[in-house]
Design goal:
The protein has helices at 2-12, 18-35, 53-72, 74-78, 83-101, 106-115, 117-127, 133-162, 178-194, 203-210, 213-234, 239-264, 270-290, 294-325, 336-339, 344-354, 361-376, 380-403, 419-434; strands spanning 42-46, 49-52. The protein is mainly alpha-helical.
Length: 446
């Protein structure tokens, strides 16, 4: 693990070489993938760091998505738009993510969790497209900070009570009074905002719409997973209290996901629609994690990995269309099949993966989550039916409206696609649909 951190720091020294950083990230991805052959439950490496299988999968996803981010953002290098600083910011964000997913101490985990906010904010403010990016950055900053400060106070209180903040050694909370409920909500709220849960999701569409393609891909691919990972780590401390409130989170997850899915059908901005679809998927993840069962945990992990690859690919496609047409509006960017016929195949492949069609990872994860919800409450089936139906509905809406119809009359000619773009999309789609063949990778959860 320390060698991985040292390797990322070494990449920072060559951030002036765009291709060197790209190749280095993909090499690290394959090396870290080979490390998965080790049979470790929890591997401690000292200095408060360690890796279990949950952290391993998310670190691997971080490496892979960051390599694809650099591949998709070659316009920054082509236009010489502070490309060295852009590479450095992305590598700092990757370092913060690796530290977050490998922390075995809750306080170090909190510091790493918050530090990932700074490079993301720099990406949005520095390489965003419109003046509204300042408002989007402020939304993201204050939503996250206001929700996270009570978590810090809660962690200090837990340290005072139990004498340790090491994961697995900390004192669990067994009381069930008003004060315990306050600490419980203070601890969980920070991760619900980052997930984000319905009612705390307003920062996400704003951040996605104003962010460059790199910011959108990282937000959807990895940063939303910080919320799910934090819930996996914090729920065991409050397992007794969580039994009282699991129905609240499960209900909000399923019903909130259904309401956001209906909202998706009213969106005309491509990136906004894909961002709202992330809220719907993460609502189902929250439901699985809150019910605190093996089916829910395994399904949530698979959906987080599948959604990270699928949503990142859809944002990449939206950026490709934006570069050709000059607008993200579905009313202007219609008829893309006429001007980019070969790109239509990738729109179809990633769209069907987004609606959890076989053989994508999303299907495997959503089956586990649906079984978890049905076991909890048969009435939950009604919410699942709404969620699944409207999930297919807004995905078909996105695909049909963007690919069919009369194309924008000002577009007389455009490139149907570059090799770099097809390579980026293929590297999103391949692991998303090939990993289900090797589904034994995820059997350590069940």
């Amino acid at each position: 693990m320390l060698k991985v951190l040292f390797g990322v720091m070494m990449l920072m020294s060559v951030c002036g070489s765009w291709w060197g950083v790209q190749v280095g990230l993909f090499i690290f991805s394959f090396v870290f993938l080979l490390m998965g052959g080790w049979s470790f439950g929890v591997s401690y490496v000292g200095y408060g760091l360690g890796v279990d299988y949950i952290g391993y999968v998310l670190i691997l996803l971080s490496f892979w998505i960051m390599g694809l981010v650099m591949l998709a953002s070659s316009k920054v290098e082509k236009e010489k738009n502070f490309c060295s600083f852009f590479s450095l910011v992305n590598l700092l964000l990757l370092l913060a993510l690796i530290l977050t997913f490998s922390c075995m101490d809750y306080l170090l985990f909190y510091i790493s969790f918050e530090s990932s906010l700074i490079p993301t904010l720099i990406l949005i403010l520095g390489w965003g497209y419109q003046p509204e990016r300042i408002e989007a950055g402020v939304y993201m900053l204050f939503y996250t900070l206001f929700a996270s400060l009570p978590l810090l106070v809660s962690l200090v209180s837990l340290y005072h009570t139990g004498g340790s903040l090491t994961m697995g050694l900390g004192c669990k909370v067994y009381e069930c009074g008003i004060s315990t409920w306050i600490w419980y909500f203070s601890s969980v709220l920070a991760f619900l905002v980052k997930l984000p849960m319905y009612l705390f999701h307003l920062w996400l569409p704003k951040a996605h719409v104003e962010a460059p393609v790199a910011g959108s891909m990282v937000l959807a691919g990895v940063l939303l997973k910080l919320g799910g990972y934090g819930l996996i780590r914090i729920f065991p401390l409050f397992s007794f209290v969580n039994m009282k409130f699991c129905s609240l989170w499960a209900s909000l997850g399923v019903l909130g996901g259904g309401l956001v899915s209906i909202l998706c059908l009213r969106q005309v901005d491509m990136k906004s629609l894909i961002a709202y679809s992330s809220v719907a998927h993460m609502g189902l993840v929250l439901c699985g994690l809150a019910l605190f069962g093996w089916w829910g945990l395994s399904g949530a992990m698979v959906v987080m990995v599948g959604h990270g690859l699928c949503s990142s690919g859809l944002f990449c496609l939206a950026n490709i269309a934006y570069e050709r047409v000059g607008s993200r509006s579905l009313l202007i960017g219609k008829g893309l099949m006429n001007i980019m016929p070969s790109m239509c195949l990738w729109w179809f492949l990633l769209s069907v993966s987004n609606m959890a069609a076989p053989p994508s990872l999303n299907l495997l994860g959503e089956i586990s989550l649906i079984m978890s919800v049905v076991k909890w409450s048969f009435l939950g089936c009604l919410g699942i039916v709404l969620l699944s139906f409207f999930s297919a509905g807004y995905t078909l809406y996105l695909y049909s409206l963007s690919q069919h119809g009369q194309y924008f009359s000002s577009v007389y000619s455009c490139c149907s696609g570059k090799v770099r773009e097809y390579l980026t999309l293929m590297l999103h789609w391949l692991p998303l649909n090939i990993l289900i063949v090797k589904s034994s990778v995820f059997t350590f959860f069940v």
